[in-house]
Amino acid sequence: MSRRLATLILIFASIVWGFAFIAQKSAMESLEPLSFIAARCLLGGLAVLPIALFERRSRRTPIEARDWRLIGLASVAFFLASWLQQQGLITTTATNGGFLTGLYVLFVPAILLIGVRIRPHPIIWASTLLALLGLYLLNGARLDRFAVGDALIVGSALFWALHVLLLGHLVRLTARPIFVSAVIFLLAGVYSALGAAATETVTLEAFRLGWVEIAYVAFVSTAIGFTCQAIGQQHVPPANAAIIMSAEALFAALGGALILGERLPGIGYAGAALIFLAIVLVEIVPLTRRPRQA
């Protein structure tokens, strides 16, 4: 697959995820977070499982024990990211949720620095300040308007960053993007189902009321969107993939305006622009300052 096609696949995934914020927020009117995540992950995993098993059989090299451990770790990161994001959407807007989730592009190089001692480009620190200022303006330049839900979604962005890094490594290591995705979905679904059974009131009526949102997020956002991410990340480095996929924030804002009637305060648009600028600079500036070949 060409790098250009992989980039287009990642952009498509960002469109799917951006509009998924609307379904995720609407679902909270009838479902509790863990119940919703269990439904989306289990249905999404089962939807791609036949293709995943075919892909696994078509590869000759076995999946090593080390790879299975990394898949398990990636599933935990995926579960925690999904849970914090869904919990946060209860008390924040779909628009804010989309932009704040995009902060994972700042966490990716930070994790690389702390975990494997890869020193980030200086623009990372400038972008971090821009993003913090953007968050302040996004909430109307008033810290008291920064809801608990916003903080939870920032936390989810950290685990999305871990998921991006682990998934990028795994799909290159195993050459099985669809199989790895299916296993991650199903494991995250099991974690969520156990959590829902222990802490939430699970009823068939709740699932009946939220079936439209579940169907979109399970089959489109999870089965298609996250599988596209895995396929695209085989050919695009994690940091580059993160900046491409951060476009989901724009589609979340668009969906929030068109479907939910959400509106940012005037100064919030400046904050949104600063956050997106910070995300773009993380990738663009290092590329433009590479030394020329002799």
Report the strand count.
0
C-alpha termini separation: 30 Å
Mean pLDDT: 83
Total number of helical segments? 13
Which sheet architecture does the biggest sheet show? none
Strand content: under 5%
Tell me the Rg in angstroms. 19 Å
Sequence of secondary-structure elements: HHHHHHHHHHHHH
Tell me, what's the shape? globular
Low-confidence region ranges: none
Task: Provide an overview of this structure.
With 294 residues, the protein is mainly α. The protein is built from 13 helices and no strands. Helix 1 packs antiparallel against helix 4, helix 5 (104-116) crosses helix 7 (148-174) and helix 7 crosses helix 11. The relative contact order is 0.23.
Features:
globular; 0% strand; 294 residues; mainly alpha
Compact description:
The protein has 294 residues and is mainly alpha-helical.
Layout of SSEs?
Blueprint: H1 3-27, H2 33-58, H3 65-88, H4 94-101, H5 104-116, H6 123-138, H7 148-174, H8 177-199, H9 204-209, H10 211-232, H11 238-245, H12 248-260, H13 266-288
Helix pairs in contact: 1-4, 1-10, 1-12, 2-8, 2-10, 3-7, 3-8, 4-7, 4-12, 5-7, 5-11, 6-13, 7-11, 8-10
